[in-house]
Design brief:
The chain has 450 residues and is α+β, with helices and mostly antiparallel strands. It has 17 helices and ten strands. The strands form three sheets. A five-stranded mixed β-sheet has the order 3-7-8-9-5. Strand 1 and strand 2 (12-16) form a beta hairpin. It starts with a strand and ends with a helix.
Length: 450
Amino acid sequence: MWDYVTVNSGQDYLSHHGILGMKWGIRRYQNDDGTLTAVGKKRYGNAETEFSELNAARKEYEQSKDYYMKKTAAGLLYNRKATDRLNKSVKRLANAKTDLNDAKDRVSLQNQKKKGKRQIKLEESYRDKGLTKEEAELAAYKRIRTEKTIAIVAGMTVVAAAAYVGYKHYDNTVDRLIKSGTVLQNMSNNANRGVSDAFYASFGKHDNNRYLDFYGSQLQKSVNYGFSSGVYKTNIKLGDDLRLASPKNAVNVLRRTMQKDSQFADGVRQSLKGLSQASLSPNQKKVFDKALKSLNAGKIDNHVYEAVNIALVDHTPRGQSVSSKFYDALKKAGYDAIKDINDSKYSGYNTRNPIIVFNGSAKTAVDSISSMGKQQIEKQLKAEIYKKYAEDLVKAYAPVGAAAIGVGSASKLAIDALTEKANLEYVKKYRKEHPKSELSAKEIIRTRHK
């Protein structure tokens, strides 16, 4: 509150004071005894318990922080008891803030006059993922609010977002031409890289930077361990147009080839079966499991193609036999390259148009080879990581997400989106394993992070 005070000196001044222990944004909604004011009840409903827990959590956090500073000499020394206590208080405070915000959101949800079609659809989706009706309603409400925030930050309308999704469909079904004169980029540990019939490449600023930084840092590890002499960027220029098969048409070529050539079909099956037992990421493992399931059902579909596409990196004799026959079939169909499904969807690189060129020697030539220094790679890697956060956000929230979203805002929102996805998977799994559990989704998630 502001008081106008006159002192004996005759000089007038403004002074501000409050109640001892006052917290900004709390006293407006809470009485001294912990009950809510009329404004507090309107905003938070019957949330006395949540407010009390928040105040207790804040007090515990301040005490834990002071204890930590004393026991560790302001972080210079390690004290396990002090560190554990501080970590627990941080989690408690974060949970208390979440609970109070959820109380506020429940009031807003109750006062909502009409739900949109997307909100209703999201509620159904959350129910399918293991949430109760009340949990799904709250999750959908928060999701819609986040999507609106994304649209504002990105400056993207729902129409523009729909166009983005439309492009993804177009990209999956329509062949493309990469024009003559385009410069492709290949990253490797090879200082004398030539053009072979088959090689992996990128083009465009986004993908080139992604490989330079992410894949370049992996190649640098090989140098650090003494297995290679350096990291090299090879620029390869197209002397003729390169025809890129869409995933849909590549599936058709694979299906026809497997149906006509039983030896090739058996090689594909054995190759995928062998690689499914190899060291794969969880996402890659799902691709191979789905592919084998389709093959066992007599289907040669997109699941099979994606697994074959990933398996093209297999340089064993069996793997080379499969890739060679598949490349020949694609060439006969008039194609020179296909999209690298692994790096565009499953490796975590999030590249937009990574390609596998299999008719390279006929249409390309090396333009230049440059040595990339360790410092150069590391300098750009950090910025590229934050860009990837933004792209993860778009994937998590499409079609309302936006590729133009700012990096600073996107990093936190992307992390939240990915965390939500992992938490929902955990809740669904937990309730399946504990069908009689009465824990709420929030309580289940917190058991995971104890």
